[in-house]
Design brief:
The complex is a heterodimer. Chain A is mostly beta strands. Chain A has one helix and ten strands, in the order ββββββββαββ. Chain B is globular. The chains are: A mainly beta, B mainly beta.
Chain lengths: 119, 117
């Protein structure tokens, strides 16, 4: 009964370096989301995976950001050539997917996040 | 235009009193869902309550209820009998559409609630 897990919990990197953030969704959840939360702000959508469909990348802020989801489970968010404005908490969420109605099908379960600091 | 607007950056409430956190939304899609999440200082996002656009009754979950006024496009969260542990950031969020389209949430900027003893 594990929830969504993310690693690392904290990442400090130097400007210009690449970073990879990992998300393990809840087993059986077909939908996976990445969000970014800057200090004191709400969550900003980045990318969405649903099953084997092509991901919705409409929220990615630049081409330095990319994500993949292998085998319909684990996802990795990669930020290349990090900038100071990339500093934020990166949150991953998963849900059962688009079938049905009601909160049990709509609820997104969030991981604890990865706090990224770019020096 | 903002999809989700939370006009109260901060709120104070006395313990055991009720508090209403405001949320208005903007969508032209007839099918949508509204969510409230709680984010304590530890950072995790905790789902509180959900309201579907076609739901006839206001959603309730324990001490949480959602005052859904569709014509006004508002979805205020009411917390009854506030507890010290309710102190946190509260986010209103919306998901538009149904089916296999994008299911990501659009979040408001949040309201920081502080419950005072």
């Amino acid at each position: 009964g594990a929830g969504v897990s993310q690693s690392p919990s904290n990442k400090v990197t130097e400007k210009g370096k690449d970073v990879e953030l990992r998300c393990d969704p809840i087993s059986g959840h077909t939908a996976l989301y990445w969000y970014r939360q800057s200090l004191g702000q709400g969550l900003e959508f980045l990318i969405y995976f649903q099953g084997n469909s092509a991901p919705d990348k409409s929220g990615l802020p630049s081409d330095r950001f990319s994500a993949e989801r292998t085998g319909g489970s684990v996802s990795t968010l990669t930020i290349q050539r990090t900038q100071q404005e990339d500093s934020a908490v990166y949150l991953c969420a998963s849900s059962l997917g688009p079938r049905g109605q009601g909160s049990s099908y709509n609820e997104q379960f969030f991981g604890p996040g990865t706090r990224l600091t770019v020096l | 235009a903002q999809k989700i607007t939370q006009t109260q950056p901060g709120m104070f409430v006395q313990e055991k009193e009720a508090v209403t956190l405001d949320c208005t939304y903007d969508t032209s899609d007839p099918s949508y869902g509204l969510f409230w999440y709680k984010q304590p200082s530890s950072g995790e996002m905790i789902f509180l309550i959900y309201q579907g656009s076609y739901d006839q009754q206001n959603a309730t979950e324990g001490r949480y209820s959602l005052n859904f006024q569709k014509a006004r496009k508002s979805a205020n969260l009411v917390i009854s009998a506030s507890q010290l542990g309710d102190s946190a950031m509260y986010f209103c969020a919306m998901r538009e559409g149904r089916g296999t389209g994008r299911r990501a949430l659009t979040f408001g900027s949040g309201t920081r609630l502080q419950v005072q003893p």
